[in-house]
């Protein structure tokens, strides 16, 4: 046995000596030949410390906000547990409620030299982690992350006991956990072929209906078990783990295509049939090739070297196409199966370095580096012309892994510069206050609430090692091998077993080494200079995919469906918008409908932003509804409290319960607060009003907070919107938690109430607070009534304007449309008369008081109006065949004009019906009459005078005073008014820019004896409809 081990190790070390000689020669020549990227020792040490800080920023965020959960959610700053949040599909199979991130990251602490924290982490894992859980997990992920992490930490704990004299308490507890987990994974190998199932229940094994019927797994899932399982067997003395893993690798080897020697991607574990025959070196197959070579290095098993050489020759023959690696059909290897590459293939140059094939490693790495520079981060998949195919970037480590191995092999400082740029990109595009967040799309930079365990286990480990000198480490890395999860397994494991043998049949099956072009590779000395290899590829990506700077005109968070400019922009992008029955908008992007190619590309980005915005808002906790309170004086001189519904924000201080903010108002300048503020000292200790648009809500909040504001109110910039007719929403943030003041949102019409009040009283104090509810969670009746009443008042102006337009349409529908119009100038104003069908209408406008009166009446049989007037110019319009009254036509108006609030206000002022609610109608009549400025005593039926005209009891009168509508908050001081007026043109109107006089709508009902109950029935029917 000892002699057998000696001979195998002699062969292995002989190969490694040749390999290291080749790499050493390469390093010397590279150092002599490429000095343009030389990095000073000081800069390298600074980058090493920055990489260390990056690790601790993420590690502490996890430990303080997520542990003992499996992962950190960096945007929510909380822990992700299995089964407690919305399902993310297969990606959740990585989680098992076993403190995944800590187990996976423990050995990185040793690499960084933090032995005290490693000791603490090991104690936490021993104390808190157990695997007796009814949860289904991925066999592959649990093996490489959890089992590998436990084994590596056990080995390092004993290593530190022997060499550093610490952790004397440790008695193999981590290995016991690893053994327990190993036995729980073993049932996965119970398949017809011995190839493991993809998933396992940690408590019940395969004894669930879902798992018993499972059939498929990926090649990498089944072929990435041998290192961890063999290490577990050799550390515990239980051979079954290694036996199962060897059998699985043997079966996979048999399934290769005998002509091309390539492997497929997905297979049936019982029949051994290929389900997906596309072959590459990326997702679904990558680590199988890696473990073929590393099983030989770690275990000294020659058969794995033979297998790797066979596969490697096939990959370089069919899949490697210059610096690119493109998937092909395993049975038709000269035919590409897809036209894009995925980010996982970035590990391949590092594996080529271990193989000793430096030149193609340099080429592929250079191509990947240019893709990273083009898109800031390497997208999850990119096309052959280097455009983004899948935009995600979950902070994967594979590119850094290859960069580290190339630097170790060549000592070329160029790779330190590469690492520096990766570090800068991570800091700029992924760092958030609570760790590092995955990037959902490299084109938009939108974050995802996700930080996988491999970020701490691999990404920051390789980044630190790239800038660290071997003398800086407490470990001699030449004594260890990195697993696919960057866990450390000692090369000394090979002496613990003589299990590995090569059978006679397999020896005959293997090709001789002479038949393999890449069997024993030492870099050709003519190509040892990495710079000379990279130079021809210098502009490879930019030459095919030129960098184009896109100036975005509209971002999803700023989009407003009521803004005509925005609607035109999205139409130019090829986006059509449909309004669903529930008020939601449906967006459809059609490239062919875009105005130009650039517009189509911006439309795609806009849709992606909209999808991510929708997802992020759906997962955010509900923010409590807010309200704006202030006191004012009504027409009768009584003080009253006004409560306006306001929308909350997903950033800043949250107003709940008794937590409220009170202060005086001021207006931001510029109004939208999207650039540097003018005279920011005016905002100090004030509640600042801003207008929506041009930038994100949270950016506005940051600017006024910096100026010293105590709160903010964002006002909608679309005229006519109100909380009574538009659904309230919560303003979204950007994932950062730097805003500490409260900010609320007001619709346009709602804000006009506030601005009118401030116009009357510039010193008005306003309170922002949570919207008050009763103890049972229902809105109090007083708050509900006041909110609704003032919403009705604020929207009545625009509604009446629409009623006038609609009444004109009613007139136009009365028989054959023949219209006569006559304008007369009177002493005080102007009168316009119009005859349409059976109706006569006159519009009287009095310049002296700004009052407008519209009279609509049915003409009598002789063609005269109700006032006895004749049609102008003696024209007699044709008689209509219909007898429909304006009142009946009114019931046919669009539903949005006859909303319950508007209809109730309209009908109460007519005093034809009472409120249909069960409450005291007298109270509502009084309140609604105050709003409409109508004397409720008019119901007595006596005649009344309006502008000298007598009205009978059936006449209709709605009178609304809108004269105080303001363009913005105007100071009362005359000098300040003039100063304000000078820059008024630069301001955007918050409230209505139209200053209306009193609108009086008078409608003469044709039949004065019309039955009251009939009217009530018609109205009830309409409300029910």
Descriptive report:
The protein is of the alpha+beta class and 1025 residues long. The chain contains 30 helices and 38 strands. The strands form 13 sheets. It has a seven-stranded mixed sheet with strand order 25-24-30-26-27-28-29. The protein has a six-stranded mixed sheet with strand order 31-32-33-34-38-37. Helix 2 runs antiparallel to helix 17.
What's the quick description here?
By secondary structure, the protein is an alpha+beta fold.
Secondary structure blueprint with pairings:
Blueprint: H1 2-33, H2 41-65, E1 71-73, E2 78-80, H3 100-111, H4 115-128, E3 136-138, H5 139-163, H6 173-185, E4 199-201, H7 209-212, E5 216-218, H8 219-222, H9 226-236, H10 240-254, E6 266-268, E7 274-276, E8 278-279, H11 286-299, H12 302-319, E9 320-321, E10 324-325, E11 328-329, E12 332-336, E13 340-342, H13 348-355, H14 358-375, E14 381-383, E15 388-390, H15 398-410, H16 414-429, E16 431-432, E17 435-436, E18 438-441, E19 446-448, H17 454-467, E20 480-482, E21 488-490, H18 504-509, H19 530-534, H20 540-544, H21 564-572, E22 575-579, E23 585-589, H22 597-619, E24 626-633, E25 639-646, E26 661-667, E27 687-691, H23 697-706, E28 711-715, E29 743-746, H24 748-760, E30 765-770, H25 781-812, E31 819-825, E32 829-836, E33 839-846, E34 851-858, H26 886-890, H27 900-910, H28 921-932, E35 944-946, E36 949-951, E37 956-960, H29 974-982, E38 999-1003, H30 1012-1024
Parallel strand pairs: 26-27, 27-28, 28-29, 34-38
Antiparallel strand pairs: 1-2, 3-4, 5-6, 6-7, 8-11, 9-10, 11-12, 13-14, 14-15, 16-17, 18-19, 20-21, 22-23, 24-25, 24-30, 26-30, 31-32, 32-33, 33-34, 35-36, 37-38
């Amino acid at each position: 046995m000892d002699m057998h081990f000696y001979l195998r190790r002699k062969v292995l070390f002989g190969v490694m000596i040749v390999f290291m000689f080749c790499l050493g020669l390469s390093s010397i020549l590279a150092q002599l030949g490429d000095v343009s990227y030389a990095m000073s020792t000081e800069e390298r040490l600074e980058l090493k410390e920055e990489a260390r800080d990056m690790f601790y920023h993420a590690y502490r965020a996890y430990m303080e906000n997520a542990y003992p959960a499996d992962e950190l959610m960096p945007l929510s700053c909380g822990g992700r547990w299995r089964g407690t949040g919305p399902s993310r599909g297969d990606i959740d199979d990585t989680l098992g409620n076993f403190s995944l991130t800590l187990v996976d990251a423990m050995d990185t602490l040793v690499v960084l030299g933090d032995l005290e924290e490693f000791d603490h982490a090991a104690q936490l894992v021993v104390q808190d982690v157990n695997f007796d859980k009814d949860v289904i997990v991925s066999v592959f992920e649990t093996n490489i992350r959890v089992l590998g992490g436990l084994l590596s930490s056990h080995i390092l704990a004993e290593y530190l006991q022997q060499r550093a004299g610490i952790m004397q308490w440790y008695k193999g507890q981590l290995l016991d956990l690893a053994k327990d987990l190993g036995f729980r994974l073993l049932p996965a190998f119970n398949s017809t072929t011995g190839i493991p199932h993809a998933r396992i229940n940690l408590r019940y094994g395969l004894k669930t209906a879902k798992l018993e019927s499972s059939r498929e797994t990926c090649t990498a899932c089944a072929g990435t078990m041998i290192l961890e399982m063999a290490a577990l067997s050799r550390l515990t003395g239980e051979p079954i783990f290694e036996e199962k893993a060897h059998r699985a690798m043997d079966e996979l080897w048999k399934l290769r295509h005998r002509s091309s020697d390539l492997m497929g991607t997905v297979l049936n574990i019982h029949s051994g049939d290929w389900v997906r025959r596309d072959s590459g070196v990326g997702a679904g197959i990558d680590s199988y090739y890696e473990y073929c070579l590393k099983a030989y290095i770690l275990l000294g098993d020659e058969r794995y070297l033979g297998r790797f050489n066979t596969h490697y020759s096939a990959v370089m023959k069919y899949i490697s196409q210059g610096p690119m690696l493109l998937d092909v059909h395993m049975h038709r290897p000269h035919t590409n199966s897809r036209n894009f590459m995925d980010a996982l293939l970035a590990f391949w140059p590092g594996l080529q370095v271990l193989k000793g094939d430096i030149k193609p490693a340099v080429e592929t790495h250079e191509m990947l580096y240019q893709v990273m520079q083009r898109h800031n981060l390497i997208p999850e998949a990119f096309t052959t012309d280097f455009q983004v195919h899948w935009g995600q970037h979950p902070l994967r480590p594979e590119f850094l892994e290859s960069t580290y191995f190339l630097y170790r092999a060549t000592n070329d400082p160029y790779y330190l510069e590469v690492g520096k740029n990766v570090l800068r990109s991570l800091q700029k595009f992924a760092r958030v206050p609570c760790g590092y967040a995955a990037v959902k799309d490299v084109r938009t930079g939108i974050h995802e609430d996700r930080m996988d365990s491999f970020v701490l286990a691999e990404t920051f480990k390789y980044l630190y090692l790239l800038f660290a000198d071997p003398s800086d480490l407490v470990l001699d890395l030449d004594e260890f091998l990195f697993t696919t999860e960057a866990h450390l397994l000692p090369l000394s494991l090979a002496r613990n077993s003589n299990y590995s043998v090569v059978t006679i049949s397999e020896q005959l099956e293997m090709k001789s080494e002479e038949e393999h072009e890449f069997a024993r590779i030492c870099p050709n000395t003519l190509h040892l200079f990495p710079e000379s290899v990279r130079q021809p590829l210098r502009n490879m990506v930019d030459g095919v995919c030129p960098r184009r700077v896109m100036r975005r005109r509209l971002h999803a968070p700023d989009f407003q469906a009521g803004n005509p400019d925005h609607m035109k922009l999205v139409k130019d992008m090829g986006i059509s918008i449909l309004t669903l029955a529930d008020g939601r908008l449906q967006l459809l992007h059609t490239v062919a409908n875009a105005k130009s190619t650039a517009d189509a590309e911006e439309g795609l980005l806009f849709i992606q932003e909209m999808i991510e915005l929708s997802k992020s808002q759906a997962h955010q906790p509900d923010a409590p509804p807010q309200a704006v309170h202030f006191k004012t004086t009504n027409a009768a001189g009584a003080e009253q409290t006004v409560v306006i519904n306001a929308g909350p924000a997903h950033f800043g201080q949250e107003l709940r319960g008794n937590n409220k903010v009170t202060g005086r108002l001021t207006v931001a300048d510029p109004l939208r607060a999207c650039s540097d503020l003018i005279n920011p000292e005016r905002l100090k200790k004030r509640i600042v009003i801003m207008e929506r648009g041009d930038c994100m809500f949270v950016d506005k909040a940051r600017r006024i907070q910096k100026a010293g504001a105590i709160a903010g109110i964002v006002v909608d910039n679309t005229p006519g919107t109100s909380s009574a007719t538009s659904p309230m929403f919560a303003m979204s943030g950007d994932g950062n938690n730097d805003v500490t003041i409260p900010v609320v949102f007001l619709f346009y019409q709602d804000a006009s109430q506030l601005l009118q009040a401030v116009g009357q009283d510039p010193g008005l104090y306003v309170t922002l607070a949570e919207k008050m509810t009763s103890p049972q969670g229902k809105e109090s009746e007083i708050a509900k009534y006041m909110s609704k009443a003032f919403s009705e008042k604020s929207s009545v102006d625009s509604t009446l304007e629409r009623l006038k337009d609609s009444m004109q349409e009613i007139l136009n529908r009365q028989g054959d449309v023949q219209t006569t119009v006559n304008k007369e100038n009177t002493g005080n104003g102007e009168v316009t008369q119009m005859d349409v069908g059976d109706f006569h209408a006159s519009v009287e406008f009095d310049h002296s008081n700004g009052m407008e009166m519209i009279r609509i009446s049915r003409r009598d049989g002789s063609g005269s109006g109700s006032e006895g007037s004749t049609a102008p110019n003696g024209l007699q319009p044709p008689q209509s065949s219909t007898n429909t009254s304006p009142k009946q036509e009114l019931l046919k108006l669009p539903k949005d004009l006859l909303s319950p609030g508007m209809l109730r206000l309209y009908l109460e002022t007519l005093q034809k019906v009472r409120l249909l609610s069960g409450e005291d109608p007298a109270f509502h009549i009084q309140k609604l009459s105050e709003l409409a400025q109508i004397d409720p005593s008019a119901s007595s039926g006596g005649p009344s005078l309006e502008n000298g005209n007598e009205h009978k009891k059936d006449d209709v009168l709605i009178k609304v005073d809108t004269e105080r509508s303001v363009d913005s908050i105007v100071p009362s001081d005359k000098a300040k008014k003039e100063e304000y007026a000078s820059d008024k043109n630069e301001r955007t109107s918050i409230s209505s820019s139209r200053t209306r006089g009193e609108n009086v709508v008078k409608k003469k009902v044709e039949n004065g004896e019309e039955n009251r109950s009939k009217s009530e029935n018609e109205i009830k029917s309409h409300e029910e409809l």
